[in-house]
Amino acid sequence: MNIASIPAVPGARKRRKRVGRGIGSGHGKTSTRGQKGQRARTGSRKRPGFEGGQTPLIRKLPKRGFRRKATGRARIREIVNLEQLNRFSDGQRVTPEALRESGLIKDTAHEVKLLGDGALSKRLTIAVHLASESAKAKVTQAGGTVELLDKTRTSQEGSRFKGQGSGPEPRASNLEPRT
Length: 179
Fold this sequence. Notes:
CATH 3.100.10.10
């Protein structure tokens, strides 16, 4: 038995409808489009959501939420919890690039926020953009430090924040971590 010997199911192979091939075909003259009107014309297509001139539903519903005017969308933050940092060796400096290499964050252009979920058993120097108060307390209790990076800092791959990458180079003071 092979694929060629399997018969087609009745109704599976349907012929294509050929329109405009004379009155004997049953689909001649107006080619199944009816007499006149917008749908009978060439290129007639209404945009999605068009309701024939009446106020569309999308305009009747109230607006919800907001958009950041500067970038058009909210900044993307990568969340890292303290317990995830135990995979690094003792005394190591943890940067967004190191987090990316270990698979904890997806993109170094995003802001990295450190949250205090879990326990930290290693003494680390952690350089992130944001950190919660509980995370800072737990890191200092473990003997490490938290360095807050400037939010306009660019990554090596380039940043997607507005104004970065196309203008002048950032000042050296922007690249230094805040403590």
